[in-house]
Amino acid sequence: MNPHTPAFLIVLPLMAAPLCLFLRKKSVVRVFASAVALICACFAWQILLHVITPGESGTRVIRYAMGGWGMPMGIEYYIDTANAFVLFIVAGIGAVVMPFGMGCKGLAGPEGQQHLFYAALLLCMTGLLGIAITGDAFNVFVFLEITSLSTYALVSMGTGRRALTAAYNYLIMGTIGGTFILVGVGFVYAMTGSLNIMDIKTILAEPGALASPTAAVAFGFLLVGTSIKLAVFPLYQWLPNAYSFAPSKVSAFLSATATKVSYYVLLRIIFTVFGAAFVFNVIGLQNLLLPLSLVAMFVGSLAAIYQTNLKRLLAYSSIAQVGYMTLGLCLIVIDGNTVHNYDGLTGGIVHLFNHALMKCGLFLVVGAIVFRLGTTTVEEMRGLAYRMPWTFAAFVVGGLSLIGVPGTVGFVSKWYLVLGALAGDQYLVAALILISSLLAVFYVWKVVEVGYFQKPDGDIVKTEAPLSMLIPIWILMIGSVVLGIAAEFTTSTATYAAENLIRSGIGMMIGGGS
Amino acid sequence: MKEVATQYGLWHYWIVVILMMIGLYIVIARDNLVKKVMGLNIFQASVIMFYVAMGKVNGGTAPIWALDTQEGHYQNAVFSNALPHVLMLTAIVVGIATTALALALVVRIKEAYGTVEEDEIVEMDREAL
After folding, report:
1. Chain A partners within 8 Å of B87 (Cβ)
2. Which of A373-377, A459-463, B95-99 has the weakest average pLDDT?
């Protein structure tokens, strides 16, 4: 790996975005943006491989001083397994989504604005990669706002006027969330006088530093801010509208990356900055987040069952899936400074990847359906399985994965979550995970039933989606089956990531079984 | 007496809190989309004040080394912490970008719906379903 790869990963899409504005010809812009995303994915893959290769003491860590200015003065990129994994997810999904439907009309915003669409999408990717890669607390805020601003613009490019109100409401919620994070960073700076996350945690580890009420207030602001971005249960109102009215490509990209990166930020705040001992033993986060996650799992799934719009259905399902992820981090078994079991956290991190695969694929399926059918209403998809057999088969695979059927990636994540719940003797939680999975059967079946078993009004004319759509969709779907059966790579990476995160908190140890 | 002085000395933080609450309240309670943007601006301005107040040192000046012409060496002055102030330059830029984008959206919403009142927009969306 080139020592400057971490910098290239951010600089490349950042520089490519304004270039899109100059390459106004849409066929050129599409190829250019896709190529940039593909190169980013290669960079992220190199970084991931470098980081998970065992070094002298466990997995390796990349610390890159931007511009040669070392910490704590300069901005440092700090990459361990946890964020290398997230980087790979963001860049990989970008590489799949950018070329999706190349050459098809109406997918990338209004006609004649494609160069703006791709510029915003590349900026959005830059911001997400930046949040994940940086080791500087204020830099997180800056990249967060880059992502947010481009996301609002992208959402407003959807069809119909409701896309505008969705974008506006997202802007209000997102800005409040971002500003909360800024206040939190301010309190942390007031306490420590540093903005470098690794420096902050060393200063906070000094005896008595976390006893000050400022620490709790800072944590509270950071928690609420990231929770808004992550769409944790009561703070999810922006998500269904934003995902349903945004262009399909944007929904696919955001659902797979935006909430995932926020989840990573939450993990970094909890495990690295404040340390698991403070968050779970002193603050007692699990008492708040565990019930909220459970409610999210059920409310999200139940709401999804009643949706008539396929995109909205998937959006509500995302809320439930975020519930699984936040549940995972609550299932940590901790005693003093020793973490006895972190299967739940592993499950949460592996679900990050798995949910990105399946939800991105499902939203792309919706994109293909909209392209051929012009609607997202489930009712009008009668007999769709015969008109678009390959597209609809992909929906079935993704749906099975959402449910968590063995042999798909969804099963792997839920397996770890249930293991985590059982390790903490939380049998009720384990049961609720299984019951909420059953709810997913209803909303997936609802669509499958309409597609396979209801006759369309007219004759069945086979109008399969073009290959430029089918290939990205099936890359994700085959991935979600292959990695569901051969889950060794993703689970071991997630385990390393969980270990890295826990150990990065000062004084935290991983103990033997409980 | 000292207690009162400390409380009084922290008055700028109280202003931050009050501004923040006013801003948040406007964002939540107002139906007019433009007023919501104003509320958001007040909210962001309060955070900017928070950072600026944090970096201010009593009696501190701008962190520029002034050459004492008579003595021929640099003056030993107390400086305010410039870092939070510099950070706020970025936050101001972000705030302006957000406001500009929000207002652009409001213009588009006004074109599409003919109103900027949220309750009327919600009503129109409900009728359209």
Report:
1. 138
2. A459-463
Residue B66 DSSP symbol: P
| Half-sphere exposure for A8 (CA within 13 Å, toward CB) | 15
Kindly report the pTM of this predicted structure.
0.93
List CB contacts (< 8 A) between A178 and chain B.
94
Most B-contacting residue of A164, A194, A306 (CB-CB within 10 A), to test interface? A164
CATH number of the domain encompassing residue B41: 1.10.287.3510
Q: How many separate domains does chain B show? A: 1
Are A176 and B109 a contacting pair at CB < 8 A?
no
Q: Taking the alpha carbons of A40, A41, A45, A46 in that order, is the dihedral positive or negative?
A: negative
Instruction: Give bridge partners of residue A54 from the DSSP assignment.
Output: A59
* CB pair distance less than 8 Å for B106 and A138: no
Is-cis flag, bond preceding A72, omega within 30? yes
- Within a 10 A sphere around the Cβ of A485, how many other Cβ atoms? 13
Sign of CA dihedral A343, A346, A351, A354: negative
Q: Give this complex's ipTM.
A: 0.91
For the segment A61-76, the average pLDDT, to the nearest whole number, is 85
What DSSP letter does each residue of A397-413 carry, written as one string? HHHHHHHT-TTSHHHHH
Q: Within 13 A of A512's CA, how many CA atoms are on the CB side?
A: 0
Q: What is the domain extent for residue B7? A: 2-58+66-128
Q: What angle do CA A70, A75, A76 make, to 5 degrees?
A: 70
CA–CA separation, A27 and A13 (whole Å): 18
The DSSP call for residue A283 is I
Nearest chain B residue (CA) to A161:
B112
